[in-house]
Design the sequence.
């Protein structure tokens, strides 16, 4: 048998000076084809910059205005009304609640429903007319120094100027009443006190999401899902089995972060440790359930990671972790209410810094519970019991 | 006791799988077409066919992993559409690709399966299975580090551990050496002797011959079924074996001649088959007296039958 030599193609490419570029080009073409087929990556290319720009551009405001304020009106006088009007005109305060008891006033501040409380004492107008310089009490929730700071510093001058302008009362040299402001919970305006509890929530969000976001897609990619589905196990059982171990992991992580915060940074815990542990467990489980839901929706592990990232970004920006929640426009606050981190930040700050109890925190606790059940329901419904 | 109204005839007690008219399409392409089959309890049923013929899809429909687009039937007396949960409890399914946890040890994998099926003493059952599989000394080894043959034994052990009534094995011996294959088949026969029903898909003809009954599927159509002898007999194929030197020329001369459906070299001999005996004989007549060639009319082998079926189905369905 005779062997005909194969035509020597190797010479063609070997002698070409641009073999390097040809091979790189081949790689580039292949990557583009794969990128075009990967819709989630494609969406990320567009979504991430758009989301960041919109959030930073429209939602975030470091000198927040229209902050929710409660009023404790001990007397109903023209002067009291004018003072409140003047405060509202500064655009820093927005009166959302009118209360009649000191206890109610304290509760609203404790639960974080208002950032400020203004108390106009009984006999205020009479005292002003007599020249007694009565005190107007303004209490601020100073856990977030950024949120409270600018409003507090503007308070004195702006209110006084407005009063002079509107009612021609008093002169700048001797103001007719004294504004006694009280920065509650964080009197030294230490941002560390605000950030360390916030970090507990942020770190837990990031790690918990990723633990479960990969769990189902990993089974599918490794081929173990086919075997698992052929065995007598239900979607709820798979979900619980995948979530429960990480509740413990998250709990240990929370102890670690809070421990360092207390020991190294001197952050106090005024509230009940049991309540903090209980609600932290709820928050951890909620995040695990959301991560697991991503896992049932994503086609592969990369997509699951991308979904987690797209959830994590608004979480840190719109939850009140980096920027004051009350300073965001209403639409951004609505998005924020849908994020577990928002509710947990209120809970963890209130328990650690304000000594809040469960009744103060019930709205946020119920919101976390609802988000958890919603995520779990979606996950169980999305879990494919067949390979169809 | 009052007799319940008989809505549907209960399947005979000795039938493990009884399905009619199963069809399944993926993305508009029909992978299984109008497939009906019956498997007796305690038998080893071989499921043969080329790659992509719909074997895996059929097996997945039987154990509830896929929902058929149309068709109905029962598996172990349970409705394959509505009672997948009951089926899963009594069926062991061994996937084509190794699907136990690579990062769990042999023992941990078996204990996991035992717990999922609610075996009372999961540790004990796993230890017993390790002993039966001859995996002593390897129980702490990660499943991912086992060789192909051991992985396959472990996978079989995992799906027999909960004492199923039916085993569905999807190409269990692909890529396994001949010794391990033989041991595997001895094990399958031992299990069937104890009353277990086994449906096994394979490419290997020698394995098909170790089955009690076989079915041949190509392009989603069930083309033949029965015992090996029945399948060969119903094929009505005539085969001539010619041996001698320099048969290469004969291949090209005979291919496409009337009555010649198939020409296949086997070492130093050639199998020439066709369904039309008279036409086949006429076509080979000119070569019958060539010196050095010995002609012999023989039974077609199972492989001849299958390849002929496959060639024919290609013409019909593609």
Sequence:
């Amino acid at each position: 048998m005779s062997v005909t030599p194969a035509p020597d193609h190797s010479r063609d490419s070997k002698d070409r000076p641009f073999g390097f570029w040809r091979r790189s080009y081949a790689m580039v073409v292949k990557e583009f084809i794969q990128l075009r087929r990967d819709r989630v990556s494609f969406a990320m290319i567009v979504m991430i910059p758009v989301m960041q720009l919109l959030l930073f551009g429209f939602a975030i405001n470091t000198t927040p205005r229209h902050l929710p304020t409660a009023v404790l009106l001990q007397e109903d006088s023209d002067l009291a009304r004018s003072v409140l009007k003047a405060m509202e005109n500064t655009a820093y305060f927005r009166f959302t609640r009118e209360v009649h008891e000191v206890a109610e006033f304290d509760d609203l501040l404790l639960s974080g429903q208002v950032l400020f409380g203004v108390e106009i004492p009984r006999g205020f107008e009479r005292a002003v007319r007599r020249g007694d310089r009565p005190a107007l009490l303004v209490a601020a929730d100073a856990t977030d120094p950024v949120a409270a700071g600018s409003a507090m510093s503007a308070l004195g001058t702006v209110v006084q100027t407005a009063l002079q302008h509107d009612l021609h009362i008093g002169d700048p040299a001797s103001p007719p009443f004294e504004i006694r402001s009280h920065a509650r919970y964080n009197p030294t305006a230490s941002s560390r006190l605000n950030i360390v509890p916030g970090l507990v929530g942020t770190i837990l969000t990031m790690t918990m999401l990723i633990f479960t976001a990969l769990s189902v897609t990993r089974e599918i990619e490794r081929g173990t899902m086919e075997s698992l589905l052929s065995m007598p196990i239900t979607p709820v059982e798979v979900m619980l089995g995948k979530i429960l171990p990480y509740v413990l992991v998250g709990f240990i992580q929370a102890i670690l972060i809070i421990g360092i915060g207390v020991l190294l940074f001197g952050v106090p815990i005024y509230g009940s440790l049991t309540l903090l542990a209980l609600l932290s467990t709820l928050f951890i489980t909620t995040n695990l359930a959301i991560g697991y839901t991503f896992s049932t929706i994503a086609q592969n592990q990369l997509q699951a990671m991308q979904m987690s990232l797209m959830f994590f970004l608004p979480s840190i920006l719109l939850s009140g972790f980096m920027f004051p929640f009350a300073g965001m426009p209403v639409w951004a606050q609505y998005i924020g209410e849908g994020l577990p981190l928002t509710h947990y930040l209120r809970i963890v700050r209130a328990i650690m810094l304000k000594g809040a109890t469960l009744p103060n925190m019930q709205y946020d606790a119920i919101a976390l519970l609802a988000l958890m059940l919603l995520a779990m329901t979606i996950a169980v419904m999305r879990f494919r019991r067949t390979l169809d | 006791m009052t007799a319940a109204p008989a809505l549907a005839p209960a399947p005979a007690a000795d039938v493990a799988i009884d399905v009619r008219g199963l069809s399944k399409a993926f993305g508009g392409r029909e992978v299984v077409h109008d497939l009906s089959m019956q498997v007796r309890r305690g038998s080893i049923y071989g499921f043969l066919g080329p790659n992509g013929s719909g074997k895996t899809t059929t097996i997945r429909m039987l154990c509830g992993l896929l929902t058929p687009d149309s068709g109905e039937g029962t598996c172990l007396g349970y409705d394959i559409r509505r009672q997948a949960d009951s089926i899963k409890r009594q069926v062991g399914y061994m996937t084509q690709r190794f699907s136990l946890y690579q990062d769990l040890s042999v023992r941990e994998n078996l204990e996991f399966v035992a717990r999922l099926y609610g075996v009372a003493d999961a540790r004990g059952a796993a230890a017993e299975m390790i002993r039966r599989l001859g995996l002593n000394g390897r129980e702490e080894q990660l499943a991912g580090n086992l060789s192909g043959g051991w992985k396959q034994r472990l996978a079989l052990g995992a799906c027999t551990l909960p004492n199923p009534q039916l085993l569905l094995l999807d190409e269990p011996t692909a890529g396994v050496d001949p010794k391990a294959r033989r041991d595997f088949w001895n094990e399958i026969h031992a299990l069937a002797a104890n009353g277990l029903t086994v449906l096994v898909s394979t490419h290997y003809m020698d394995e098909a011959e170790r089955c009690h009954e076989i079915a041949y599927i190509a392009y989603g159509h069930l083309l033949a079924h029965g015992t090996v002898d029945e399948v060969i007999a119903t094929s009505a194929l005539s085969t001539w074996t010619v041996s001698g030197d320099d048969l290469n020329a004969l291949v090209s001369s005979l291919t496409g001649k009337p009555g010649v459906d198939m020409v296949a070299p086997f070492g130093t001999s050639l199998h020439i088959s066709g369904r039309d005996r008279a036409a086949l004989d006429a076509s080979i007549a000119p070569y019958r007296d060539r010196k050095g060639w010995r002609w012999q009319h023989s039974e077609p082998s199972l492989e001849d039958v299958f390849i002929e079926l496959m060639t024919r189905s290609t013409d019909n369905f593609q």
